[in-house]
Amino acid sequence: MSAQNKILLLDDDEQMLELYQALIEQIPSHPDVQVCNTGARAIAMLESEPFTLLITDLRMPKMDGLQVLAIVRRKFPQLRIVVLTGVPDEEYRSRAYAQGVEMFWQKPSSAEDIQLFQDCIEAMLDRSTQTLEGFRGVQSKSLVDLIQLECLSRSSSLLNITRGGLVGKIWIQNGEIMDAATAQMTGEEAFKEILSWKSGNFEILPPDPGRARTIHISYQGLLLDSAQALDESKGPPAGTGPEAESLTPGGAPTGLAALGRFEGVGFVLAIPPDDNAPVDSWSLENSMDVANWARDAHRRLAKLGDGLRAGQFAGAFGFGLQEHWALDAQEQKGLLCVGFRCALTAEQVEQTMKHVFDKWAS
Amino acid sequence: MGFLTKQAPGLSGLHRLPSGAFTVDARGNLVSSTLPHWVPEVWAVQIGQQILAVFKGAAGVRLPFCELRVHYAAFRITARELRGGAIIFLSPKSAAPPLPPS
């Protein structure tokens, strides 16, 4: 008995989402179709749970479909992707195929088109089931492997590596390492620092061709230097060198992604008490803006409570037509701001926030 | 921020937490109130301004909402957006269980 296929449908148009969700759910294998309306949310959902197929629009505000494809293709190499667009454009079509999509569909406009579209999706799901054991990419790799792959394939990308509260970036342009940065360092020093991290998460972001070059050594030389520096500084026991430690590319839900699994949660933003420390977010595009607002709102409301002698601040909730949010604070960890889908009632939001906050705080 | 610093002592001069509702317009001016007479008008205005600032800040980061609930250990504020202003409900939380009907 094969497991039910899961399809993620991404489109900024809510009505189209509803329509295509209904159309795809009708196909014989009755897949589980989940929907989202932003690229960031799609990536967060893909990180949270396995999907068989991603169906995405191309023209969307903020992160457009091609950006989503660039990230998804690299992070989830075995995921099948179908592009569904309302505007047939040869340039978009060729760029989408270059990103490795399986099919490029113009949004069906007749009953025949719809039937054909449904048949194709069914056939793809069928194929997915048959080739589930196949090898379409490398999901778990060391950071060194990843850099070598990027450089050997002469790719251009921005690697964003996080390890707990640490964030590092490596800029690669046409297979050359251009620059690297951590909070305190840049250039080769930062590169070696990042390679010394034994574990963490990475994501491959679209390239930043405007980044000035500060590293002029070849990637082979740089990796060799870094490996030597690591050997000298640590002398690790056999089998536990940096190559033996795998990063998790969007891997099993950890940290905030695990909080995103609570029913109805749309985004999660953790804001440390130190205003200068980096924030951590899941499925939120404008995390810095929201963090600044959340800090300001918390200060206002907490001081309001102090002035009133109303007791300790115990949470704030906003209920909107499109989305709800909740904000709570813990002295050591800072603020937690969580977005909720508008389908939840106020009571459900308050209850779920309690569970999410308890899990985060613990 | 004046309210939170220089004028805060005025607020703490209240010996008990008030119950009632009031409305403020988009500029934060008090429009109507059912608060007890011992609550100074300026006090309601200052709460209203803080609440409106939270509403406006959220809209600025694409998190618009129409109802705000703020919980404190002993108090609750509920605010609903009202044509750019807000209607604000103040509810002290009672530590004692409700009295049985006599």
Characterization of this structure:
The complex is a heterodimer of chains A (362) and B (102). Chain A has 362 residues and is of the alpha/beta class. Chain A has 11 helices and 14 strands. In chain A, helix 2 runs parallel beside helix 3 and helix 7 packs across helix 8. Chain B has a 5-stranded antiparallel beta sheet with strand order 2-1-5-4-3, with helices on one face. In chain B, strand 1 and strand 2 form a beta hairpin. At the A-B interface, helix 10, strand 12 and strand 13 of A face helix 1, helix 2 and strand 3 of B. Strand 12 of chain A pairs antiparallel with strand 3 of chain B.
For the structure shown, list the relevant keywords.
heterodimer; A: 362 residues; alpha/beta; Rossmann fold; Beta-Lactamase; 3 domains; five-stranded parallel beta sheet; 11 helices; 23% strand; flat; B: 102 residues; alpha+beta; five-stranded antiparallel beta sheet; 2 helices; disordered C terminus
| CATH domain topology of the largest domain in chain A | Rossmann fold
Tell me the β content of chain B: 25-35%
Query: Assembly state here?
Result: heterodimer
Flag low-confidence runs of chain B.
1-10, 96-102
CATH level 1 name of chain B: Alpha Beta
CATH superfamily of the largest domain in chain A: Response regulator
Number of DSSP E strands of chain B:
5
Number of helices of chain B: 2
The helix tally of chain A amounts to: 11
By CATH reckoning, the class of the largest domain in chain A would read Alpha Beta
Number of structural domains of chain A: 3
